[in-house]
Amino acid sequence: MCGQGATVGGRFSELRGIIDKVRDQSRVGVCLDTCHAFAAGYDLAAEGGVRAMLDEFDQEVGLHYLKAVHLNDSKGQLGCNLDRHEDIGKGCIGISAFRDVVNEPRLNNIPLILETPGRTGFEYEDQIKLLFSLCRKP
């Protein structure tokens, strides 16, 4: 899924159309990228935005196709159609959305893969610790 303007697959309905053309759909999987989704207009930053996005993904594509999530913030604004990753909590999506992602029960068995610039001073280890700190304890 990408939000790069004319790129195919920028909306979940387009992904469904692609999947429908595959003969053996058991071999299909989707990796959802938080920056791409935000750039495509899915408002993860809004209250309930992560839940709403996953509801739409489930309705349009089917959660059984979701095999991984790339976690990254966005340098661009909502709906900007630009794939510009930012470190967690340092971009336009914001920390609250990532709290919702790491606590979303439908993602419990889905790999969450950090895909950020990892700049000096806020490296991957720091971002992983931050994400773990956002997890609610059972």
Automatic annotation (TrEMBL):
InterPro entries with a match to the protein in the record: AP_endonuc_2 (IPR001719), AP_endonuc_F2_Zn_BS (IPR018246), Xyl_isomerase-like_sf (IPR036237), Xyl_isomerase-like_TIM-brl (IPR013022)
Domain of life of the source: Eukaryota
Mind telling me which Gene3D superfamilies this protein's record contains? Divalent-metal-dependent TIM barrel enzymes
- GO CC entries: mitochondrion; nucleus
User: What biological process terms from GO does the record include?
Assistant: base-excision repair
Q: Which UniProt keywords apply?
A: DNA damage, DNA repair, Hydrolase, Metal-binding, Zinc
What SMART domains does this protein map onto? Answer: AP2Ec
Name what cofactor the protein needs.
Answer: Zn(2+)
- Stretch forming the signal peptide: none
Could you state a single Gene Ontology molecular function term?
A: zinc ion binding
Q: Which family does it belong to?
A: Belongs to the AP endonuclease 2 family.
Concerning PROSITE patterns, the annotation shows: AP_NUCLEASE_F2_2 (PS00730), AP_NUCLEASE_F2_3 (PS00731), AP_NUCLEASE_F2_4 (PS51432)
Q: What's the protein name?
A: (spotted green pufferfish) hypothetical protein
The protein's matches in PANTHER family, at most eight in alphabetical order, are given as:
APURINIC-APYRIMIDINIC ENDONUCLEASE, ENDONUCLEASE IV ENDODEOXYRIBONUCLEASE IV
Start and end residues of each Xylose isomerase-like TIM barrel domain: 1-127
